[in-house]
Amino acid sequence: MKLLILWVGIILITLSVIFYLLYKYIFSDSSQESELNKQELYEKIMYDFNKIFPDRNRNSGGAQFYNYILDNYNPDKKEFDLYNQFYCSVSGSPIDPNRKNIKDLIVMRDLDGNNICGDYYRCCVPCNCDLMKYAKVEKINISLRDGMYIYHVLTINDPCINKSEIPKSVTGFKCNNTKTSNGRHTPSGRLIIGILHNSSLCEQSDLDKIENNEITGKFCSERNSLDPDSLKGGMGDIFVKLSLIGDNDKNDNSIKDNSLKNIYGEPLKKCRKFETDKNGSWDSEGFCSEKGGGVHQICFDVNEDSQDFSENTGQSDWSKNRLGKNHCMCLGAWSLYKAKQNNELIDETYDELTCDAIPEISLNENYVQNWNTWNGNELDDQIIDGVNSLMEQCYKKGNEKQKKFLQNKYNILTKSRTEFHNTDIYNKYKI
């Protein structure tokens, strides 16, 4: 019996030693090794700083950092990911891994307009805002030492397309025939300035987290509502100027000078409530402009009563995820929505329109047919319900001047369209 107890004791002691060694050398030491490796890699790229930026000016140097890593280090995936955490893609500022609070969850648009969420390593918080507004991501394959991997890379138009417009405070770009020679490009030709870490298509929970964050939500919303020319000084100003080189949208006067009018005859307002909201079917600036001839022109407030809008118009239930936000609805979908209500097919809703964000052109004659068409789900003469409901809601919301303009637009549209003439709304507002 004593011998048995002795052997059990020896076995327990041996197992304890084994577990201790496993913890120490596998878990503890590997963690220490990982942190040591991260610091070594950071010190390595900092040692090469003068090679990356011979004049020591790293302003907007994300492209140069990214290019140097691939050209000189032959990294595996782990190393590649770490190296690309050590600089801010917007400012070019080095990011010491010992610093705390150096990354944020952000949302970016890809070239197809999809929302891509991921972690961004930055020097200071305005860089988040500027990146989300002025850059795009592109999915590419990157060949590394241990294989081929897919990444969402951060991109801007190559500023060397017009070398003379590069800010004087940015000196790191080597331009050769309108192309940055010390940078890398995506298949579309855009210039890579870094990577979006842990990226994927955004879930609604991701977007909610970004929107509710004090920085990526509130702060960025305020900053990104400013015109680029209002940003004076600092790295954000430099990066914005750089990113807009070759961007046709920067010269879009219909946005810049608010020449687009709303149904009150006044400058069109943005439909987008939150700058981080990328899902509203609006243009790049948040307007239901549809300058290319589209039909997403009804600025619609998705509230408790109207959250079933998409299902009620023959779509999926996506509008429930838009609760509390605005959305640029199709003219035809809006007409069908109101036609179903007037035919008592669904519950009636009120006051869902943001009228000053609905473009004047939606009530022009050439758009009439768009009110009557909706993916084969139309009701006969649904345009009557759509136009009349808009008239009723927006007339009530307007001041005297706005009411007069809207009433005139309504009368011009409906005067020759006899289907309106027997309606209460037409007889109420006809001139």
Please give a structural write-up.
This protein has 431 residues and is an alpha+beta fold. The protein folds into two domains: 44-249, no CATH class; 256-429, no CATH class. It is 39% helix and 13% strand. The protein contains 15 helices and seven strands. The strands form two sheets. The protein has a five-stranded antiparallel beta sheet with strand order 1-2-5-4-3. Strands 6-7 form a two-stranded antiparallel ribbon. Strand 3 and strand 4 (147-156) form a beta hairpin. The longest helix has 46 residues, at 2-47. It is elongated. It starts with a helix and ends with a helix.
Name some characteristics of this structure.
about 425 residues; single chain; two-stranded antiparallel ribbon; 15 helices; 2 domains; five-stranded antiparallel beta sheet; alpha+beta; elongated
Topology:
Elements: H1 2-47, H2 49-52, H3 62-72, H4 77-83, E1 103-109, E2 115-121, H5 126-134, E3 136-144, E4 147-156, E5 191-201, H6 204-212, H7 214-224, H8 234-243, H9 253-256, E6 296-301, H10 309-312, E7 326-330, H11 331-342, H12 368-371, H13 382-397, H14 400-414, H15 424-429
Antiparallel strand pairs: 1-2, 2-5, 3-4, 4-5, 6-7
Question: What is the approximate shape?
Answer: elongated
Radius of gyration: 28 Å
How do the SSEs run, as a string of H and E? HHHHEEHEEEHHHHEHEHHHHH
Structural class: alpha+beta
Fraction of helical residues:
25-40%
